[in-house]
Amino acid sequence: MGEPILLKCVGCGREFAPEPSLFTCPDCGPSGTLDVLYDYDRVSELLTRESLDKSREFSIWRYLPLLPVAHDTPRTPLTVGWTPLYRTESLGSEIGCPDLFLKDDGRNPTASFKDRASAVGIAKAMESGNNIITCASTGNAASSLAGLCASLGLRSVIFVPATAPRAKIAQLLVYGARIVLVEGTYDQAFDLCYDTAQSCAWYCRNTGINPYLSEGKKTAALEIAEHLNWEAPDKVFVSVGDGCIIGGLWKGFHDLLEIGLLDRMPQIIGVQAEGCQPIRQAIETGKPVEPVSPDTIADSISVGRPRDALKAVRAIRNSGGFALAVPDEEILDAMRTLGRSTGIFGEPAGVTGFAGLRQALRDGLVRSDERVVVLITGNGLKDVDSALKAVGEPPRAKPDLDEIRKVVEEHYPECL
Amino acid sequence: MGEPILLKCVGCGREFAPEPSLFTCPDCGPSGTLDVLYDYDRVSELLTRESLDKSREFSIWRYLPLLPVAHDTPRTPLTVGWTPLYRTESLGSEIGCPDLFLKDDGRNPTASFKDRASAVGIAKAMESGNNIITCASTGNAASSLAGLCASLGLRSVIFVPATAPRAKIAQLLVYGARIVLVEGTYDQAFDLCYDTAQSCAWYCRNTGINPYLSEGKKTAALEIAEHLNWEAPDKVFVSVGDGCIIGGLWKGFHDLLEIGLLDRMPQIIGVQAEGCQPIRQAIETGKPVEPVSPDTIADSISVGRPRDALKAVRAIRNSGGFALAVPDEEILDAMRTLGRSTGIFGEPAGVTGFAGLRQALRDGLVRSDERVVVLITGNGLKDVDSALKAVGEPPRAKPDLDEIRKVVEEHYPECL
């Protein structure tokens, strides 16, 4: 079900029938990212409020008619998606935005949003008969691909910058990925991965290249809409690196408009780190995206040359949203605030959307009566070193009752 | 709903009406762990296959009539429980146990099984009007308590051995817990926590002391039974430290027998690390549990003086199960095997149950036609140092296509 009818170049608009080897527009080259278009009339018959109310499939696959995957394609047995959307009124009121929701995508099988894309990418690889799948990644896409490949007995070959957080590399190794630690940037790892995939005929799960990843990522938008009973929120905040997540969100809301399950597009707000804001600069200046040298603690969005820039810029402009950049200190502060106020522990890039919301509220860019959703894209356990930068060292005590009492009196008098 | 009718001492059998301050048997002292008993006739009217089929509450609270928590008690807004139970036939066949299921409790909000207990413990604290909750922990109970307290605006005071994995300490700090790093063992931290809680009148979320934790933990058994359509598996394997998880599992199956939703008790198999096997030794010798000096990589079950020994031993004996001990190398190997074959990344204690299953299969203690469930109790991201011990270092390459090609040829020839 939901076989794509067409692939359409986001750059030149040319349309193509899907073929296993067609990834980007032959006319525009690797920058010619493709959209997946459906027969929306048909989908609107298959995917309805009623069909979803009855569904007991609590994962991204509940939206199969809107996914480019055949009914009988093998899928990862791991439960991907259907992550919680928490109403967080008390934190919301504190920051001036009481109608606030947080979607915790760190609850995915490999603890990041990227599982949505990997699940669909891997299904497409299986449809094309290719059992070796590769990607370059700052970490999360890699561990996601590796974990989901492991669940299906497929091979993954991963190109990752040698500077990626240890937890992400540990995950890769445990999942049995074939890893190449590239002594360079993500952007270099990306190009090397792409070229090696071409010469080795590996299936390429690379953002901006593989058109099906956005389709996996859009499931977060479908879930947000369904959880909010098919009423679009006013604004959605999300961190932006390559631009694929934000592009996928837009596509999800777009598809729901097409099939009549939503009646308006929420404003989509892209948040980058101050030390790496090529998308924000493009939005600001109205010019094409210019590469930058990234410098931010938020490794997952430390992307100087965004591969899904076209889709990212479209998401922001078409939805009437805007782009922001936040300093690393505010990212760390967002991590602390979310942990302390909600019990959600996000990684730096995972909480950057929330840091952006706070800045937008300060700048008067969000009204206090607006319904806002912030996407938390990855679990903080993936980058403990950064988490430890966000917090101090706890006090120590010898194993003695008097010593303990002294520590409590000195550090936690409010508990006495 | 589901207010407990009685508390009953597991040691002497005396029964008590519940009161907020009653934690252990006044006659037996701190070792007099209590069971929570229900009016099972009444519960069997409220909790039926039909009521559960209709329920849209996909968390531990779907079993509210079997939980000791009032309807209107505030609960953590985080989604606890209802974790996936994966059928893993291919790995199962490989090891000689094709009807194998893995329950991944690393998918809980703070990435461990302990959230089940914390959710119920915190609800009971709120019922008793106490806003400061304390526990001692090897790590997971601590981060769980801290995260869930944060979600409700409560204070947590945490006693943790200074040797706990950094990720668990980072979690605690991000959740805003008041932490005391105790320069000693878990057993020392436990006693110090208990004594300080008494003198400061903090609510005590300590295993073996607080009778309501088992009730939270039993929800895993309820979920296993429901996922398997109310047919008990033949065997359930689980790692054992304090003994509270295994005791909770038994209690869950027991309660289902009482209300007629199951018709037999599965055999429950407790797996400990070779370097810390007091429960296994007690089962072996038939004598009371003797404290040991723990020495294992599996920090979450590195418990020399198990606080829930009575419930643990009962779970194994009463279910006709057995106990095993596995060396640390097999725990690390279990971590690798699970990661590579299923995409589930468990922490050392989290995969110890699986290491035990492999040993039991080798020893002829499990028949190949038996249905086996293994509980994975915590996410591997919580202990990356141990994970890195389980795997090697990945190869590195300069950012150059020829260099990359050489790495692939040398290390991953099967991908060419």
Describe this protein's structure.
The structure is a homodimer of 416-residue chains. With 416 residues, chain A is α/β, with parallel strands linked by helices. The first copy, chain A, has a domain at 86-111 and 220-390: Rossmann fold (3-Layer(aba) Sandwich). Chain A is 40% helix and 14% strand. Chain A has helices at 40-46, 49-54, 89-95, 115-127, 140-152, 166-174, 186-200, 213-217, 219-227, 244-258, 278-285, 309-318, 328-342, 348-362, 384-390, 401-411; strands spanning 6-9, 15-16, 34-37, 85-87, 100-104, 132-136, 155-161, 178-182, 203-204, 235-239, 267-273, 323-326, 372-376, 396-397. A 6-stranded mixed beta sheet of chain A has the order 4-5-13-10-11-12, with helices on both faces. Chain A has a 4-stranded parallel beta sheet with strand order 8-7-6-9, sandwiched between helices. In chain A, strand 6, helix 5 (140-152) and strand 7 (155-161) form a beta-alpha-beta unit. In chain A, helix 5 packs parallel to helix 6 (166-174), helix 10 (244-258) crosses helix 12 and helix 13 crosses helix 15 (384-390). The longest helix of chain A is centred in the middle third of the chain and has 15 residues, at 186-200. The first copy, chain A, is globular and about 75 Å long. Chain A starts with 5 loop residues before the first strand and ends in a 5-residue tail after the last helix. Chains A and B meet through helix 5, strand 7, helix 6, strand 8 and helix 7 of A and helix 5, strand 7, helix 6, strand 8 and helix 7 of B.
Supply database-style keywords.
homodimer, 416 residues, alpha/beta, Rossmann fold, 14 strands, 40% helix
